[in-house]
Amino acid sequence: MAQSWYSVVDEELASVDESIRKGVRSSYPELNEMCENVLSSSNQVLMPALIILTYYANGGKKAEEAIGNAVCFQASFDGLHLHDSVDSNGNVLPGKKKKLFSKDPSTTKVIVAGDFMYVMGFRYAYASSPKAVPYLMKASETVSNAIFDIVDRSRKPEISEEDVMDIVLRKGAIELEVVMECAAEQSGAGDEARKKMADCGRYIGTAVQIVNDIKDVLGGDGDKPLCHTLMTGYPTLPLYYAMKDSSVGQSIKDAYVNTSLSLKEARMVASQIGSTDAVAKCRETIEECKRKASEIIMTLQDSKYRSALIEFVGTL
To answer: pLDDT tens-digit profile of 88-130?
Structure first.
């Protein structure tokens, strides 16, 4: 059986998962269940693996340092993303609700659970990975500002490609940019290496965000599309290209500006998006990001960690 790209850091990843699950336990069973649901449904490998691999690939030697860094970022960003389950009107999105929660939680409880995980990440950073704190603050500030821009630009089919890419960078790519830069600093690498890893993380983060946006409207890995972006009106690259289509573009625009679009209706629109060349155009951007990220990674000293990073980029 083929090994996963992150298999060289399996032991560290197990420690990250264990630490996060211990850290989010409270005296409230429902809060515990909500946090466990998030940890079980979200990707608990991607970010920690990139952090740990980047740390080792840049010469880091202390496993506990790499693990601590991964724990604080993963917990905090899980908390931030839990807030994404709530739309701008304060409602828990149907697709997210079904995927994340066994019960029907109130918006307040979702927000509290997200805050709880977010603070847990900061608490862990101050205790075990203090160098990560300014990076957590930078990412949090950038994402928070981007959310307001997203709302301001939502349901506006005339949005430019530049504005869409700006949102991709500040809402999604920023996370991997800061974690890979922080991992390089934790490893003891110099300013040049840290800058390279920030650039690399930005390219990888951009590719990952676009891949996720494609999956949102088309589904993936056997899952039905959640159509989060269609239902909230958030601008994404697949939606931007699909709305430019000469055949079904106007129909997609009409759905995009519809504030009462149901999940069933959104999935019908998603099939129209799949009939356009939007995904093919998105793949061009993804491939360019992969090329640039790979070029940067290849400047690192040869190691199994560098190889794992290259292998991961190839999976996007």
So the answer is: 565 665 555 445 555 666 777 788 888 888 888 898 889 888 8
DSSP element (H, E) containing 295: helix 278-297
69-97 exposure pattern, b = at least 16 Cβ within 10 A, e = fewer: bbbbbbbbbbbbbbbbbbbeeeebbbbbe
Indicate the CATH number for domain 7-315.
Answer: 1.10.600.10
Q: In this structure, what are the phi and psi dihedrals at residue 89, rounded to the nearest 5 degrees? A: -95, 5
Residues 6+ apart with CB under 8 A from 241: 276, 277, 278, 281, 282
CA distance 167 to 198: 18
pTM for the structure as a whole: 0.87
Long-range contacts, 99-102 (Cβ 8 Å, 24+): 99/41, 99/226, 100/34, 100/37, 100/38, 100/41, 101/34, 101/37, 102/33, 102/37
* AA identity, residue 184: A
User: Quick check: 75 and 38 in contact, CB under 8 A?
Assistant: no
At residue 174's C-alpha, the angle toward residues 172 and 180, to 5°, is: 120
Terminal Cα distance for the chain, rounded:
21
Q: Name the residue among 177, 169, 170, 183 with its Cα closest to residue 71.
A: 183
DSSP track, 26-79: -S-HHHHHHHHHHHHHS-SSHHHHHHHHHHHHTT---HHHHHHHHHHHHHHHHH
